[in-house]
Every structure is written in structure tokens, then in C-alpha cells.
Amino acid sequence: MKAQVSSVFYLLLFVTVAFLSAYIIYNLNVKNANVLAKDVVVKTDQTRIPVFDIRDVSYSEFGSTASISFNMINLGDNLVLKGWIIEFLSGDMSKVICRSIILTGDPNEASRISSSFTVTNRNATLDVGGIMQSGDIVNVELTLLQTCLNETMQYARREPKVIFRLGIPPTYRTAILTCSVDPNTGYATCTE
């Protein structure tokens, strides 16, 4: 009986010492790192999916210029205006006619497409790196330049259907805009 009591006593002593040792080591490590356990947060910002709606899409050609404009409503978290991609695709989406990065400081990309972003509900203009706040309604106007312009206009003259795909980081959620171009006027009717 004494042996059983002694064994239970040593077992409880061993578990207590192990628990206290683990607690002391944990506290020393956390205090040395100047971090409180409650302040350790897993960040998931990198995986947020942009949520937006696109309305009033128009594509038009005037002589040697082509432009696409639409209203974009941010339904989710704030969006940074940087690294957005626009692609012009064939009607069956099998061929990329032109691909350009919107909102970049790279002069090569800036020479392919010109853009303006006007926040209609705040009466503000956004530039590269600007923040499109949740609930913002932004009028986006893109003017095609150089290579992108030539390739898109030539395709639109041959085929009545052009698809525009807008990609927004970090997950590049895309909105697909399908436009039917009238070759006589250069105007198009578009839907998302």
C-alpha cells in the first residue's frame, strides 16, 4: 500500500514539475520576444477575395482610339489600385488578343493603356496605390494605346463579340464583360 501511495505521489510530483517547467519556458520565450500571446494573430489579408459589381459597361472606337468604361461598386474590403490586369479575349475566350496591367508605375505598361478612376460617391480621383474603399462607386475609363489598341480594334472589326476580363489582386477575382461591337459605328453593348 505504501508503494502505491508513493508511486501516485511521485507521478503527481512529476506531472506538476513538467507542467511548471513548460509554463516557465513558455513565459520566458514569450517575454523575451516582447510578445503577448493575445497579440499573436494569424493574418488572412492575403487571401481575401475582392468582391465587386460592374455596371454600365461601354466599349467604343473613335477613329484611331478605343476606350472601355464602366462603373465599379466595391462590395467587399478596401481594394488597392495596383497591379490590376485587363485582358481582351476572343468571343469564345480561346485567344488573348491583348493583355495589359492597369495601374502600374512601369512606363512600358503605361504606354499600352491609359486609365482614370473617379470615385463618384466621394468626388475624388484615385491614382496608382490609391484605396478604393468599401462601398465606393468608381467610374473607370480605360483608353487603349499602341499595340493593345491596334490588336483590339482589328479583332473587333472582324468579330462582333469581344470579351474583356478584369483581374484584381490578390486572388485575381475576375469579372467577364462580353461586348457585341457594331462594326459600322464602333459602339458596343456590353454585359457582365
Shape, per Cα inertia axes: elongated
Q: How many separate helices?
A: 3
Name the CATH architecture of the largest domain: Sandwich
Helix content: 25-40%
Question: Any idea how many domains?
Answer: 2
Secondary-structure element order, N to C: HEEEEEHEEEEHEEE
> What is the CATH class name of the largest domain?
Mainly Beta
CATH superfamily of the largest domain: Immunoglobulins
Contiguous uncertain segments of 5+ residues: 28-47
Indicate the structural class.
alpha+beta
Q: What portion of the residues fall into strands of 2 or more residues? A: 35-45%
Keywords: Membrane, Transmembrane, Transmembrane helix
Organism: Candidatus Nanoclepta minutus
Transmembrane segments: 7-26
Protein name: Late embryogenesis abundant protein LEA-2 subgroup domain-containing protein
Notes on the structure:
This protein is α+β, with helices and mostly antiparallel strands and 192 residues long. The protein has 2 domains: 2-39; 45-191, Immunoglobulin-like, CATH 2.60.40.10. Helices cover 25% and strands 41% of the residues. It is built from 3 helices and 12 strands. The strands form 3 sheets. It has a 5-stranded antiparallel β-sheet. The protein has a 5-stranded antiparallel β-sheet with strand order 5-4-10-11-12, covered by helices on one side. Strand 1 and strand 2 (65-74) form a beta hairpin. It is elongated and about 105 Å long. It starts with a helix and ends with a strand. Residues 28-47 have low confidence and may be disordered.
